[in-house]
């Protein structure tokens, strides 16, 4: 499978990443990406930027090194209610919002609590994607959550970093998640979760996993820029006129 969009990348602003936005854009261009999302960690993650970092993304150009830039965030899931740690007036200005569990912010509980939390995040309609769900520290009922995501047009991320050892025990879980998504018609997105520029656009493990489960291309929103942009517009985002030729 060919993926031309990376929907999960970090810059040095995240506090534990090591490249600038310009360096990430250069790497994206070298990989032949059409678009990538810049998704630094939201403020409750230790070391992350102030909310102004996200509010001010409107100043970013729409293209760097010939690659389209989508303004985004990896928000932290905060509680059972499904709150995230960025004010709605800011997330509504962004193009792309991932919501993820992170141990320093949401203390792992049990499968029932994690399941209810994710369902509430989905139903809030404040996020486009659920990030790195394969993490075994946050077990959940796959069928319940993925079916709910499909119902509410929230995509499931298959995270290359998780498949490369950053979250031990994720590999088999990601495969099962992909299989459930395939079965219930949920759509997925592909994210490198790059914390260094060289990893931007690296989907090696993602591609292998999706081929293994024979995942349908039409359920992958990152195989063509127009498919991805149509997804955003279907979710109520304003059309990004600078990308009209893509």
Automatic annotation (TrEMBL):
<feature type="binding site">
    <location>
        <position position="41"/>
    </location>
    <ligand>
        <name>Zn(2+) 2</name>
    </ligand>
</feature>
<feature type="binding site">
    <location>
        <position position="16"/>
    </location>
    <ligand>
        <name>Zn(2+) 2</name>
    </ligand>
</feature>
<dbReference type="GO" id="GO:0008270">
    <property type="term" value="F:zinc ion binding"/>
</dbReference>
<comment type="similarity">
    <text>Belongs to the PHP family.</text>
</comment>
<dbReference type="InterPro" id="IPR016195">
    <property type="entry name" value="Pol/histidinol_Pase-like"/>
</dbReference>
<feature type="binding site">
    <location>
        <position position="74"/>
    </location>
    <ligand>
        <name>Zn(2+) 1</name>
    </ligand>
</feature>
<keyword id="KW-0479">Metal-binding</keyword>
<feature type="binding site">
    <location>
        <position position="10"/>
    </location>
    <ligand>
        <name>Zn(2+) 1</name>
    </ligand>
</feature>
<feature type="binding site">
    <location>
        <position position="132"/>
    </location>
    <ligand>
        <name>Zn(2+) 3</name>
    </ligand>
</feature>
<feature type="binding site">
    <location>
        <position position="8"/>
    </location>
    <ligand>
        <name>Zn(2+) 1</name>
    </ligand>
</feature>
<feature type="binding site">
    <location>
        <position position="102"/>
    </location>
    <ligand>
        <name>Zn(2+) 3</name>
    </ligand>
</feature>
<keyword id="KW-0378">Hydrolase</keyword>
<dbReference type="GO" id="GO:0005829">
    <property type="term" value="C:cytosol"/>
</dbReference>
<keyword id="KW-0862">Zinc</keyword>
<feature type="binding site">
    <location>
        <position position="193"/>
    </location>
    <ligand>
        <name>Zn(2+) 1</name>
    </ligand>
</feature>
<dbReference type="GO" id="GO:0071978">
    <property type="term" value="P:bacterial-type flagellum-dependent swarming motility"/>
</dbReference>
<dbReference type="InterPro" id="IPR050243">
    <property type="entry name" value="PHP_phosphatase"/>
</dbReference>
<dbReference type="GO" id="GO:0016791">
    <property type="term" value="F:phosphatase activity"/>
</dbReference>
<feature type="binding site">
    <location>
        <position position="195"/>
    </location>
    <ligand>
        <name>Zn(2+) 2</name>
    </ligand>
</feature>
<dbReference type="InterPro" id="IPR003141">
    <property type="entry name" value="Pol/His_phosphatase_N"/>
</dbReference>
<feature type="binding site">
    <location>
        <position position="74"/>
    </location>
    <ligand>
        <name>Zn(2+) 3</name>
    </ligand>
</feature>
<protein>
    <submittedName>
        <fullName>Putative histidinol phosphatase</fullName>
    </submittedName>
</protein>
<dbReference type="InterPro" id="IPR023710">
    <property type="entry name" value="Phosphatase_YcdX_put"/>
</dbReference>
<dbReference type="Pfam" id="PF13263">
    <property type="entry name" value="PHP_C"/>
</dbReference>
<feature type="domain" description="Polymerase/histidinol phosphatase N-terminal">
    <location>
        <begin position="5"/>
        <end position="79"/>
    </location>
</feature>
């Amino acid at each position: 499978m060919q993926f031309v969009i990376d929907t999960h990348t970090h810059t040095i602003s995240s506090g534990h990443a090591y490249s600038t936005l310009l360096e990430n854009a250069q790497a994206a261009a070298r990989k032949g990406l059409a678009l990538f999302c810049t998704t630094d960690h939201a403020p409750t993650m230790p070391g992350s930027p102030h909310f102004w970092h996200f509010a001010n993304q409107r100043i970013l150009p729409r293209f760097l090194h010939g690659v389209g830039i989508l303004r985004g965030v990896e928000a932290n899931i905060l509680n059972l209610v499904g709150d995230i740690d960025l004010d709605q007036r800011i997330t509504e200005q962004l193009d792309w919002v991932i919501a993820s569990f992170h141990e320093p912010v949401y203390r792992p509980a049990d499968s029932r609590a994690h399941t209810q939390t994710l369902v509430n995040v989905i139903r809030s309609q404040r996020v486009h994607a659920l990030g790195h769900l394969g993490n075994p520290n946050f077990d959940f009922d796959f069928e319940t959550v993925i079916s709910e995501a499909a119902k509410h047009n929230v995509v499931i991320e298959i995270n290359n970093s998780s498949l490369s050892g950053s979250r031990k025990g994720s590999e088999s879980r990601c495969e099962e998640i992909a299989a459930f998504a395939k079965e219930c018609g949920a759509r997925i997105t592909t994210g490198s979760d790059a914390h260094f520029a060289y990893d931007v656009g690296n989907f090696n493990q993602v591609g292998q996993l999706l081929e293994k489960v024979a995942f349908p291309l039409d359920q992958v929103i990152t195989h063509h820029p127009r498919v991805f942009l149509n997804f955003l517009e279907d979710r109520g985002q304003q059309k990004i006129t600078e990308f009209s030729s893509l």
